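Whiteboard transcription, Tuesday session. T.W. wrote the structure tokens on the left side:
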């Protein structure tokens, strides 16, 4: 069975190539693209080909009396008497979206020897208070809830010591 796009002549793939001319070489790039158009016109399989100059404001001039649309620079377009050309303003920069509030950290504390859970879903203050009753930092494992991974992550010894330092404050 033939591809539906092939049967209907629908274009399903394209290629966008951006070419930026070095200062003073704009005419060379235009000549290169004009030569490319001549080559493309000789390829029957190419159904559409566009070259758009982005360095200046260009206008798609469709008022060519049936000879086809042309891209012309805005400054070269001949204005019709009594008719003005509308150039939309440059878009304003949008402010960044507000940052999502960070959820408070949740901790789980387990006894190293018995694996008993001493605290689950505790906030920082409750965790530090619990650590006040522990003999040594190596007697417990402290975990923090990771919402992205949706699992508990065990704190490193350095992170546990930071919590340990908060005892008695």
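and on the right, the sequence the group agreed on:
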């Amino acid at each position: 069975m033939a591809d539906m796009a092939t049967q209907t002549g629908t274009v399903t793939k394209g290629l966008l190539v951006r070419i930026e001319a070095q200062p003073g070489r704009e005419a060379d790039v235009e000549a290169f693209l004009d030569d490319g158009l001549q080559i493309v016109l000789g390829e029957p399989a190419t159904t559409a080909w566009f070259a758009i100059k982005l360095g200046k404001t260009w206008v798609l001039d469709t008022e060519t009396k049936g000879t086809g649309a042309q891209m012309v620079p805005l400054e070269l377009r001949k204005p019709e008497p009594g008719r003005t050309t509308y150039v939309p303003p440059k878009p304003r920069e949008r402010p960044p979206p507000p940052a999502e509030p960070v959820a408070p950290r949740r901790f789980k504390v387990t006894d190293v020897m018995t694996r008993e859970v001493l605290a689950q879903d505790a906030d920082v203050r409750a965790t530090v208070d619990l650590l006040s009753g522990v003999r040594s930092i190596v007697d417990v494992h402290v975990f923090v809830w990771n919402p992205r991974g949706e699992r508990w992550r065990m704190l490193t010894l350095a992170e546990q010591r930071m919590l340990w330092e908060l005892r008695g404050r």
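Someone added at the bottom: The helical segments are 4-8, 26-41, 124-132, 157-165.
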